[in-house]
Amino acid sequence: MSTLIRAATMKNYFEVAQQLGLNPQPLLNAAGLSRTMLADPERRIPAAAAVRLLEESARQSGCDTFGLRMAESRQLSDFGVASLLLIHQPTLRDALVATMQYRHLLNELLAIHVEERGRTVVIREEFVSDVGTTSRQAIELALGALYRLCGFLLGPHWKPHSVNFAHAAPENLLVHRRLFRCATEFDREFNGIVCDAADLNFPNPSADPAMASYVKRMVESLPGPAQNSIATDVRKDLYILMPMGQATIEQVARGRGMNVRTLQRRLEEANEIFSHILNSVRAELALRYMENRQYSLQVVGRLLGFSSPSSFTRWFSAEFGMAPREWRKAAGNTNDAG
């Protein structure tokens, strides 16, 4: 069963489609969606259908910044009831924690991880489809919305060091430059925002502790998250942890506040095995990295967690039926330097 997301995730879809001269109805029909389904922001729609709609709309319009255009006009209120909680968090750090804690009110397929590196911090974000579908448009929409959230909390003068994407740059950077008031990097090892560590603890002038406490009680009285597949949760964690070199069952269990045995038991109850999920995520990320002309095979192997080029080659050959160098040649990508 496909994971469901709030229809509010697709807010501004019709506006952008109209601007680009698209007729949305055939696209909606092909994705298995309707105007009625998107009209109620709190309605749950299949995530896979939303991804298909975004990608096909970008393809038919010839606009590879379709998702980012949707993010450009996002308001804090578009986060739904969670916006009342986020706007009253004392710091950006608290808001990010709340975003992760209550992501069932936002988008359950989002994975966010805060990595502190001395005076800088990396806010990593991934849109992890439960059907293994990668989506440039969904990632740019999600990262654009995250950037807007940070701006709402830190004020108009906030300027991060960079916004980073794992995919290649579009032909035209106009929309990226218009939305992001900082360096925009492509072909990077992660999707996310790099900013000053001090930004995480900068006081939010709009914060009201009493209101935050009230809204938290209200939010917690709402129906909780659907019983998300433990496999989907682990997949999201691994998408973040793998390029960091931390894709282990110990790290996943620790991040979920449980011991390894408890995680293994929950996976067993769902007829899942950690090593199988790990291999599935590794294969999906392998295609992402192999298609990126900027990554040498040595870098790809490292990002996938292999300690040596030979072990990466053996795994890739078994998984895809040919050596990585041969795969790139077949795909017309000859950037296979070590």
Set out the fold topology.
Elements: E1 4-6, H1 13-19, H2 24-31, H3 35-39, E2 44-46, H4 47-61, H5 66-72, H6 82-86, H7 92-101, E3 110-117, E4 120-127, H8 136-154, E5 162-164, H9 174-179, E6 183-185, E7 192-196, H10 209-220, H11 230-241, H12 249-255, H13 260-269, H14 274-290, H15 297-303, H16 309-320, H17 324-330
Parallel strand pairs: 5-6
Antiparallel strand pairs: 1-2, 3-4, 4-7, 5-7
Helix pairs in contact: 2-4, 5-8, 11-14, 15-16
The string of secondary-structure elements, in order, is: EHHHEHHHHEEHEHEEHHHHHHHH
For this structure, the CATH topology of the largest domain is H-NOX domain
Looking at the overall shape, the CATH architecture of the largest domain is Alpha-Beta Complex
Mean pLDDT: 89
* Total strand segments: 7
How are the strands of the largest sheet arranged? 3-4-7-5-6
The count of helical stretches stands at 17
Helix content: 40-55%
What shape does the CA trace take? Answer: globular
Q: Rg from C-alpha positions?
A: 20 Å
Biggest sheet descriptor: 5 strands, mixed
Low-confidence stretches: none
CATH class type of the largest domain: Alpha Beta
Q: What share of residues are in beta strands?
A: 5-15%
- How many structural domains are formed by the residues? 2
* Structural class by SSE content: alpha+beta
Query: Termini distance?
Result: 41 Å
Organism: Lysobacter niastensis
Protein name: AraC-like DNA-binding protein
InterPro entries: AraC-type_N (IPR032687), Homeodomain-like_sf (IPR009057), HTH_AraC (IPR018060), HTH_AraC-typ_CS (IPR018062)
Keywords: DNA-binding, Transcription, Transcription regulation
